Amino acid sequence: MLSSLHISTSLSVSSISPPSTPRARFRPPQATATCASSYTAQQEKGSTSSYLSRPGMATCTSLYEVLGIPVGASNQEIKAAYRRLARVCHPDVAAIDRKDSSADEFMKIHAAYSTLSDPQKRAVYDRKNFLRVQRPLTSDSRFSGYRGRSWETDQCW
Amino acid sequence: MSSLFLIGDSDKKSSKSDGSNIQNSTFSKLLNFAPPFCISFHQFEVMAEPAYTVASDSETTGEEKSSSAFPEIAIGIDIGTSQCSVAIWNGSQVELLRNTRNQKLMRSYVTFKDEIPSGGVSYQLSHEHEMLSGAAIFNMKRLIGRVDTDPVVHASKSLPFLVQTLDIGVRPFIAALVNNIWRSTTPEEVLAIYLVELRVMAESRLKRPIRNVVLSIPVSFSRFQLTRIERACAMAGLHVLRLMPEPTAVALLYAQQQQQLIHDNMGSGSEKIALIFNMGAGYCDVAVTATAGGVSHIKALTGSTIGGEDFLQNMMRHLLPDYDNLFSSRGVNEIKSMGLLRVATQDAIHKLSFEESVQIDVDLGNGSRICRKVNREEFEEVNQKIFEKCESLVIQCLLDAKVQADDLTDVMVVGGCSYIPKLRNLVKSICKRELYKGMNPFEAAVSGTALEGAVASGISDPFGNLDLLTIQATPLGIGIRANGNSFVPIIPRNTTMPARKELVFTTVRDNQTEVLIVVYEGEALKAEENHLLGYFKITGLPPAPKGVPEINVCMDIDASNVLRVLAGVVLPGSQQPVVPVMEVRMPTVDDGHGWCAEALHRAYGSNLDLVTVQKK
């Protein structure tokens, strides 16, 4: 019943281009943060409704692509890639106008990292990923305009 | 009037959701007995220094990152239960600021003895006993944001000032004894007065206005308590850039030190896993961090409201078994005796960190005198439960972080209790490591907040000393009440932030048209044993058999640590939510909400209940 729910993606965030270095002091990223597959994210979390979540990146890429690493990457390489991307995409370092998208971006990166850095989860993912038939996701959105308020305040009441 | 406005300007946003009446009255109270602060506020108007006026209505926060030619560096503040300190990145390193008495660590208290209340930053105690006369309020950090049914509030009733509880889940009544009058105040107000002193002190040291701060907070603080801290800061004219769990501030300092070692070609660039044990007078916190390349990735956090205050109270009751009876009346003489005992006991505990035994000789002035030898073993036995709790926090944290003791590179013990031999030994033995020696245990947390202050202000360092990032984790789980009276976490503890998670629920009754979403934060299995953050109803569900509507509850913690709860309903086969989605920013509860959950239960019973949907 739940699986019959249509997986929709929001249009608000388009695929993210390699982030320009927000502040000079950070090394330029060697890997680019593209977007994760909402399909796999759905699978991982077992969540059903995407109409509440706003990330929705339409393109299907593998978790390896999210981290910009080869499929056979070692645990070391996974960690290094995660940190490298965090240095660029984490909202604490992202430029002010990218805060919202950088949070989504960082969550994708973290989701990829937490799956791939756990040998068991990685094995499960690899198996599914291998069997998975790439199917395009429709991009209709029940809530295309729906987004959280974005007052960027640290101070909340 | 306009000065009122100016003080309040940092919390414009707050007034939207916050009863501004309450706030104004608190302000005016603060102003009434705080003329010196008024003077400093007054300068705002008269001198109108440009820097003071930057905070205009239109500006929101987040502006901090904008690169101006002279970015303001936020200061770091460690508000301790017992001691406070302030530090700042001075351009090349972290520097702790000293008050006029040349102290880096200042006692945390505010005395209401004089017409103008004054705190431990500026005030010179004639003797330690003066703090215990009933006229001074201290241990604010243990009281702030707690209701009067909280055991921690009850434990505070043995302090010399008045902590009165009605045990109905409202804010406790707190008062200082001045000329035989109990003058009421609140923990937020006391903290605000103290913070104003800290701000004035920092402004005079740095010769510039201070607005942005990074504060360290205990791991176990609920989001409601965080709002109280923010309110106190706003009352003091300070804007909170970040609230950092204390051990994560220490972790950031560690990350920077490791970076420096690499810079000096003395360290390797490989990942280091460190455990930080931080115990002060009020709280005990543990964190596990994985650090490399200046990135401190917090793997797990655990914390509890245990600290030096508990050692002290256990010891006083041990020395004077009749303690609670003797001091229940709380007359001036009893308070004096209590103060004498407290000072003597505290002194003995300090000495026991370095000596095997200590002689206590104290005349309580009421005919009783305590004259005896206390040894370290006795102290450890009396406080065995606390040590066991500390042990379990460390073990839990390692477990949560999925880290074995053998994986640890370094182990740090910091905070006011860090010299207690038993604590050091228990951490060493669990972690199978000698303790890290590279940081001052009393200054580590404040140094970390100063580093975060510089990083969050967008300051860069030519030597890369500020190339730092903390990847934070949620210290407590956040979820809703469902499946009867259970707490169902949606964002579990130790989830990396920012985070967004959702779960599906459904109705428990046929034709149930409304559901009640009650949001809690904590770890307890029973909903009401957690911290209540807020509640709202979803109404207008179309009639359907129970178990059919899909109620999605999504929780989102954004980059600024703001929590939003979204809830929507769909019927199977439909694509569209049947009613508009609810989006609620939490916490929504105000003071004295301990009774809310009970009142909700009385009003609705289980009529608006939810259950989780089993994954298929």
UniProtKB/TrEMBL annotation, chain A:
| J domain ranges (all copies) | 62-129
- Span list, region Disordered: 1-28
Q: Please give the superkingdom of this protein's source.
A: Eukaryota
Biased composition, Low complexity: where in the chain? 1-18
SMART domains recorded for this chain? DnaJ
What the entry lists under PANTHER family is as follows:
DNAJ DOMAIN (PROKARYOTIC HEAT SHOCK PROTEIN)-RELATED (PTHR44240), OS03G0244950 PROTEIN (PTHR44240:SF33)
Q: In its UniProt entry, what is this protein called?
A: J domain-containing protein
> What species does this protein belong to?
Hibiscus sabdariffa (roselle)
From TrEMBL, chain B:
What are the UniProt keywords, alphabetically?
A: ATP-binding, Nucleotide-binding
Q: Region entry Disordered: which residue ranges?
A: 1-21
State the superkingdom: Eukaryota
Q: Which residues form the signal peptide?
A: none
Q: Which family does it belong to?
A: Belongs to the heat shock protein 70 family.
Protein name as annotated: Heat shock 70 kDa protein 8
Q: Which organism is it from?
A: Hibiscus sabdariffa
